[in-house]
Amino acid sequence: MKIQKKNLAGEVVFQYDGEVVGRDKNSITLEAFFGRDDMTFMNVTLKRGDRFVETFFTDHWYNIFEIYDRDDGTLKGWYCNIGKPAVIADDTVSYVDLALDLWVAPDGTQTILDEDELEELNLDDDLKQKIYAGLRELEELLKTKTPPN
User: Fold this and answer.
1) What does pTM read for this prediction?
2) What residue ranges define each of the domains in the chain, with the CATH number in brackets?
3) What confidence tier does 41 reach under pLDDT thresholds 50, 70, 90?
4) Are 72 and 90 in contact (CB under 8 A)?
5) Among candidates 121, 125, 78, 75, which has minimal Cα distance to 100?
6) What is the spatial distance between Cα 133 and Cα 25, in angstroms, rounded to a whole number?
7) Which regions of the chain does DSSP assign to beta strands (E)?
């Protein structure tokens, strides 16, 4: 299945492949592998081949990526994108990225990312309210360190 990250204009800015591991009426969970060179992010190193278990929702303003180390399978954390609800088709999942992100470390520490990028988008108040409502929902869900599936 193709996973497509889109910008506000609806243009695909990044695309990669994933395998379906679960699906229900309002969500799909896919397994994908990190395809970029090793890079440091927050308190971890993302490595080429790290396993991502990605859940996209058609009824929530976010998606959740659970990240596991390629070498020993340990949980590195959750990377969450705030975005418009996903569109799930037969062979693609797409979402419009709205810049704001949430990183949750395995110990539960939460870090909001890219608020400056969000401000640069100059969004209307209604859309900003939906974005921040999605963020608050995520923060609450991930207090338990186990996101919904």
Assistant:
1) 0.93
2) 2-144 (2.40.380.10)
3) very high
4) no
5) 121
6) 22
7) 2-6, 12-17, 19-24, 27-33, 39-41, 44-46, 51-57, 62-68, 75-83, 87-88, 92-104, 110-113
